[in-house]
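quick one, 449 residues, struct below
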Amino acid sequence: MNYSLSEIKKESGTLLKVGSPIIATQLLSMGLNVTDTIMAGRLSAADLAGVAVGNALYLPVALFGMATLVAINPIVSQLLGGRKFDKIGKSARQMLWLIAFLTIPSFFMVRNLDLVMHWTNVDAEIIPYASGYLKAISWGIPGLLIFAGLRYFSEGLAVTRPSMYVALSALLINIPADYILMYGKLGLPAMGATGTGYASAIIYTISGLIMIGFTASFKPFKRFHIYAKTRGPEWKYIKELIYVGVPNGASSTMEVLLFASVSVLMGTLSVTASAAHQVAINIAAMAFMIPFGLSMAISQRVGLAVGQSSIQKARFRGFLGTGICTAIMCITAVLFFTIPETIVGIYTKDPAVIALAVPLIFMAAVFQISDGLQVGGFGALRGLKDTRIPMVVNFISYWIIGFPVGYILGIKMAVGPEGLWIGLISGLSVAAVLHNLRFHLLTKAKSNN
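---
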């Protein structure tokens, strides 16, 4: 089925209308980490490296829970498309139970990640800083997962602005909170890297409480009776959340674990290499938030079409969205190639860190297109509630190909930071091809039935 230019413009406009607040939310949320990194960098290289390694270890645990909860997005968008309004509230209530189940192990795991640092031979100077950061930020996990789950629920119903406002408020609060706790103002002790963890924990808790208040009071959501009915766990609904969510959580975690593993390996090279990597990966991650936010909107648009029993429309929306993601990443690639020193200079003034970070920014420019393609295709597949095969694809791409290539080049062959980043490029490129190929095959087969 061919689509006219007017239809392409209309769908692009709708996708951007739904996706723009999600992009803003992702950028603002990422801004918390960027703020922590910049302010830690003003203290010392050890504080910066501690936040780098601590965050690299914390993110896979937090992301698994958050990405598992993303399942609510395609579930409610398909229910919305099929006008099955009574099941939307039931799915939301069972998601809250799933949040409770995810919170407990996540909390204790984060508090004991210093064991991983000892096992991977992270520089002894970094470990106390990273450990303090991890134990502090662990207190924010309940709030983080509540915010994430209720945010994805709202986004699945195309209500995307409230979470953006919450994220903006969180960033504005985080800046003074970091300053007070890191530098010891208002009579408090100076906590350095640990202070950034406590600041984040406070922000996550406040954000979760605000999202509870919003979803409870927002008039269009009242018909779903999210909080009006109190029931225990219902396996029928939790099973679907797990069926869609856990593979999605595992897929996203595999990608982040690849980046986290590279961060940890950087810590075995030197404090300067770890700090440079943290700066470069923060910049690349900030750019990635744009297509990642759009991928959530792609999931919602594809899921809505599936609920309306229109696979052709789902195919159109998925590929159009992926194309827009890739076009955006081409723009960021140009920026990375042309002004790397200027971008790195925002994060640090340390000449040694800058010298190592700039070549990594050039390499980040190379994988921008692959990143746009893979996240767009992954989002389209998620809209179909297809998450198990993408999980296998991510495992192959990141751990059979990406990590071994990076480890052999960066550590065994002593190429250094650039060798580790070649592994990142390899893994992302393979995932980009395979995710989009699967979406093509799935939607082509179903549309022909």
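The mean pLDDT is 87.
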